[in-house]
Design goal:
By secondary structure, the protein is mostly helical. It is built from six helices and no strands.
Length: 136
């Protein structure tokens, strides 16, 4: 990458009539770099490098994150699939999980004494369940 000062000197030298081959030898830069610099100046009017937009764009913007947080606050036991359906998201369930834990900082806490679903049998304290050691 060419420094900002050298970029300005290259453009000034070209504007003063210096040929491309002389610029290449004087500033010890590659031909494609010089032509790319001239293209940049032509398009933007500046020798400043373009800002980089690295990586994939986020699946949810700040409004989407706020909406997801509102859904979770309104219904704390909402499932990832319900969030996906209600928000019409085109991302995977693990991606939703990462957003909730990473960006919204929610944590999933298991309810140890609650049944996983309605079909699970619950036992009262003091009742025995399963095989017993006593002989009858």
């Amino acid at each position: 990458m060419i420094s900002l000062e050298v970029r300005k000197l290259i453009v000034a030298a070209h504007d003063n009539g210096m040929k491309i081959q002389e610029i290449l030898k004087t500033f010890q830069v590659k031909k494609t770099a010089v032509y790319n610099l001239f293209q940049l100046v032509k398009e933007t009017g500046s020798v400043e490098p373009r800002p980089h937009a690295y990586g994939r764009k986020p699946a949810l913007n700040s409004e989407g994150l706020m909406r997801m947080e509102q859904l979770i606050d309104a219904q704390p036991d909402i499932t990832f699939q319900e969030i996906k359906d209600q928000m019409n998201l085109q991302i995977s369930i693990p991606a939703i999980s990462k957003i909730i834990s990473g960006k919204l900082h929610y944590r999933y806490k298991k309810r140890r004494y609650m049944p996983a679903n309605a079909n699970v049998r619950t036992y009262k304290r003091g009742e025995s369940y399963g095989k017993s050691n006593s002989q009858t």
